[in-house]
Please model this.
Amino acid sequence: MHLARGILRDNPSDDDLRRALTMMPLDEGNADANFLLREELAERGDAESMFMLGQFYDPAANLPRGSIERDPEQALNWYRQAKSGGWQSTGPDLDNLKSWLQQEAENGNPLAESLLNSME
Model:
């Protein structure tokens, strides 16, 4: 995490951030740092990073997420931004999220029901 904050303090270029990500494997120990760098790239318009933020938040995704809490609303938001930004590979992940939301809605989760309605 300290490494990511140090990189961000130096006002890195997009290429600098991408290089840092390639040297930082996405594992439980680096998940929070990876998230911070992806968040910066996503805010700059990087569709792949938008998709990866969706993955971090997605309760149906299986990747190391460190201290990032699952948040289906944020996941859906980032997947939609990635798709509108040109990222083509959101379909299967949106389908998995939709299945998760359907199960949650059946269990009485009002947020899941609301998100499902927004997907249709």
The chain has seven helices and no strands. The first helix runs from residue 2 to 9. The two ends are 38 Å apart (CA to CA).
